Amino acid sequence: MGDKADVWQGTLALMVLRTLDTLGPLHGYGIARRIEQTSENLLSVNYGTLYPALLKLEQEGYIASEWGLSDNKRRAKYYKLTRAGRKQLEREIQGWGQATAIVARFLAPKEQSS
Amino acid sequence: MRKLRAWFLRLAGLLGKERRDREMTEELESHLQMHIEDNLQRGMTPEAARRDALIKLGGIESTKERYRDRRGLPGLETLLQDMRYGARMLRKNPVFTAVAVITLALGIGANTAIFSLLDSVVLRFLPVEHPEQLVQITRRGPEPGHEGVPVFTNPIWEQVRDQQDVFSGALAFGAQQFDLAAGGEAHYAKGLWVSGDFFRTLGVRAAAGRLITVADDQRGCTGVAVLSYTFWQDHFGGAASALGSRISLDNHSYPVIGVSAPGFYGVEVGTKFDVALPFCATAVFDGARPRLDHRSWWWLSIVGRLKPGMDPAQLRARLELISPRVFAATVPANWDIANQKNYQKWVLTSASVSTGSSGLRRQFERPLQTLMGVVGIVLLIACANIAGLMLARAATRQREMAVRRAVGASRLRLIRQLLTECLLLSTAGALLGILFARWGSVLLVHFISTARDQVYLDLSFDWRVLAFTAAISILTAVLFGVLPAFRSTRVSLTSAMKGSLAIDPERHARFRPRRGIVASQVALSLVLLVGAGLFLRSFVKLVTLDLGFDRENVLMMHTEARTAGIPPEKWMATWDEIDRRLSSLPAVVSVGRSLITPVSGGEWDQYVQADSPNPPSGAASDVYLNGISPGYFKSLRIAILAGRGFTRQDTATSPKIAVINQTMARKLLR
């Protein structure tokens, strides 16, 4: 896992919200796999950290959960985005865009000067 | 908002633990199964598939632990855990716990009791509008010792009322006891004479009906009565029918027009009124010499509400300015010239009464502060005692501490645990202490009350008292807990585990704090002992004070000839008859009567002119008088040093005579 970036604090929630927004209701394992796949395996989620994060989002009312059946007819807890969660996602995307733009400006190639 | 919601849910997460735990286990289990199935599909062996899934999850138990932390409030959970554990430890040691809690309860209770008295006598504001604007008017005379005298005559009050320009409103009041019964055994009510503006200026509202106004206080009025809320509740059951009914006071009947707001007991702290009447109604009681025009009947207090923006210095200056006019207009004509001159040198001044005017405060503020200091020391001694006990207990708990340290508890964690135990102890002590304080403060008020002069204080615990109790209980927990907690968690693991405490190298050091505790205990106790000794000496002095008469086996009774409806010309005969009948009782040695009961607080003084070569004048010619019957000296065993006492032959028609005491003979008849 050496060269795989760890998921840093704060972005995990954004990724979870985005995943649920794209794929619709999904269980924890599915969310974890999706994050890994989307990052083309560059990002390694320690699956264990995902569950407290899901619980936090649920406590804040951004996602809701209910038990359902998976494709293989296995009982699993499904998470889905709430309306508040959708709004929060928009806000975070906006904020994230701003932050990266600012950082990008700092990291722009140096102008040639003597 | 979201954060608040999350906190609330986490608080709720402390409940229904088992169900949530089951659900969490199930969720993680389903996660693992899905992962294993995926791995199997990718061609892993069953063992490798499971191993990989577990590694990726990062361990089931640690995941669960993190999940639980997020679900509930870890800090709160540890606190609850500490409290449960602490309670269990205290239960395991009932004797220690009982001793500690009772010691603390006495200490905290004593402090709370004294503080609640201090609060009601000194700190609490009057339940009126803007109490901070109220000032009481006092007077200052030219002679030393005549300062801050708060009583006035009605003529002075009328002058002040009409001449002052510093108050937005001024009021005056005076107390008098009334007999509610028409004849037979007397039932007393505490009466309050009030000027017309009394209630309006204070901003006191009516609980029922209406209050006395300026229109009710006009010369020649027939009088109306306003009841206090408690009197209305006690004597009329709070019935609306009380309004419009009539109340009999010393055989004069008055219509009840209203009830004042609950919580208002008058301006004087330590007293309460039952019935308020307008000043003008005093005329009915006074007959030929009405106090309304009497220039040396000192019976009322004056309070004013400052105009906005008026500062104390301005106020005093204005009062000083009007003083000469006020006193010049009210000189008692029957005083001798020297005293009249003195009278006109009086100056009006002021004192703040936001917390109520009170003779009680003047009398008890310093003693209460002293008592507060004393009970504070008592509490410190209690703390030292318990700290000692805790240290002793620490020795027996050393093994426990060592084991807990060994299995990974941090020292801070252990200290926290021990301090939680202390807080439990002091909270239990405080709760029991509040009970003690309730009884204690009632008992104390009872001590300073006498049958004739009852002290009434609102002792209900307000937020200030409860905050005080909470603060001192936390303070005591810190005081007696911190040192033992630090001491008992400093354990040497190896020696403790080996069970050989005897060779603990730190053993000697352990005695140092205990020596400190003992030393401070002795020092504090010594302070208390000396204080108590001084108090006791004063007390013995007071009890054995020579009052000039023999108090043993003297019984006292009061008669109210006027309210019993006996015409004045028959009073003497009635009293003589009472004398005669009492004397015939076999157990009675002698019977005497007096106008003024000695040391009752009642006084009758007058300037006298002595027929001697060099008669004193002014304050030096002021003597105290009393009217007595022939049996008085004998009943109180007062010796006649020269001449004779009164006999039955001294009647209204015989030559006028007087008996003087030794002091007067020495001072006035030199």
CATH class descriptor name of chain A? Mainly Alpha
Shape of chain A: globular
Regions with little confidence, pLDDT below 50 for 5+ residues of chain A: none
What is the number of helical segments of chain A per DSSP (H or I, 4+ residues)?
4
**Main sheet specs of chain A:** 3 strands, antiparallel
Count of extended strands of chain B: 12
State mean pLDDT of chain A (0 to 100 scale).
81
Give the CATH H-level superfamily of chain A. Winged helix-like DNA-binding domain superfamily/Winged helix DNA-binding domain
Overall pLDDT score of chain B: 84
Residue runs with pLDDT of under 50 for 5 or more positions of chain B: none
Measure the end-to-end span of chain B.
91 Å
User: Helix proportion of residues of chain A, in percent?
Assistant: 40-55%
Task: Outline the biggest β-sheet of chain B.
Answer: 10 strands, mixed
Order of helices and strands of chain A: EHEHEHEEH
| Helical run tally of chain B | 21
Number of strands of chain A: 5
Architecture overview:
The complex is a heterodimer of chains A (114) and B (670). Chain A starts with a strand and ends in an 8-residue tail after the last helix. In chain A, helix 1 crosses helix 2 and helix 1 crosses helix 4 (83-106). Chain A has four helices and five strands; from the N terminus they run βαβαβαββα. Chain A has one domain (5-103): Winged helix-like DNA-binding domain superfamily/Winged helix DNA-binding domain (Arc Repressor Mutant, subunit A). In chain A, strands 2-5-4 form a three-stranded antiparallel β-sheet. Chain A has 114 residues and is of the alpha+beta class. By secondary structure, chain B is α+β, with helices and mostly antiparallel strands. Chain B folds into four domains: 2-72, no CATH class; 131-354, no CATH class; 363-543, no CATH class; 568-668, no CATH class. Chain B has 21 helices and twelve strands. In chain B, the strands form two sheets. In chain B, strands 1, 2, 3, 4, 5, 6, 7, 8, 9 and 10 form a ten-stranded mixed β-sheet that branches. Chain B has a two-stranded antiparallel ribbon with strand order 11-12. In chain B, strand 2 (167-179) and strand 3 (188-194) form a beta hairpin. The radius of gyration of chain B is 37 Å and the shape is elongated. The termini of chain B are far apart. Chains A and B meet through helix 2, helix 3 and strand 5 of A and helix 1, helix 2 and helix 4 of B.
